[in-house]
Amino acid sequence: EEYTADFVVAVPGREGAEWFAREAQRLGLDMVMNPVDIGVRVEVPAVVMEPLTDVVYESKLGYYSKSFDDKVRTFCMNPYGEVVIENNSGLITVNGHSYADRKTENTNFALLVSKTFTHPFREPISYGKYIATLANMLGGGVLVQRLGDFLAGRRSTPERIKRGLVEPTLKEATPGDLSLVFPYRHMVSILEMLQAMDKLVPGVYSHHTLLYGVEVKFYSARPALSSSLETQIKNLFAAGDGAGVTRGLAQASVSGIMVAREILERKLN
Length: 269
Fold this sequence. Notes:
By secondary structure, this protein is of the alpha+beta class. It has helices spanning about 15-25, 45-55, 125-140, 145-150, 160-165, 185-200, 250-269; strands spanning about 10, 30-35, 35-45, 60-65, 70-80, 80-90, 90-95, 105-115, 145, 175, 210-215, 220-225, 235-240. Strand 4 (about 60-65) and strand 5 (about 70-80) form a beta hairpin. The longest helix has 20 residues, at about 250-269. It starts with 7 loop residues before the first strand and ends with a helix.
């Protein structure tokens, strides 16, 4: 069916990022390639993170790796929360939640490595999906590995996970070897970030720390936009994570408000 409107706003969620990129290409919009964010979800005892989480509920930490100068950042910190499965149209990835009505003894957060690709590569979302597919292939879904096992060059087993001091909150995760999934530079950058964080909150870089994979954020293509988030097509706006404009709930909400105010102003004038 075909509908007409004075104003159109495209605000897909992350799951719609690939669809939005195809539509933008169909419409002939110039696209900017955002970095691909791929990494792990880290789970540690909540007491380890309390020096941070007692002051700032969700801290945002950034680091540039010494080996590759890749940016690594924390994302979606969940004090006393749970690691959960996220289903992206059949592709199983990992995420995390905190709940108001129940708490665990663990805190989890994502460590994401941002990598910007250059010409001629133009399929960052497909690249992220490929990495996640490897984990699905090896573990039937989410893989989990103790940091100590990773550093020792061995896979985690159910017995080794049980002997650890951190009890996984995601029981469905399959013990395995993340080195078979991630590119070398990603794992080196993640390890460097954990070492740096250990100076801030000692205990993060522990052999008992759990690493879950893969966590990937699908918001890697963004159309050329004006300051009011208008595309090259007049009165067609784009906002939110799936359009590559933002990278979080609060920012996505703000982008929607910006577009609404711009449309309201044009209607009134």
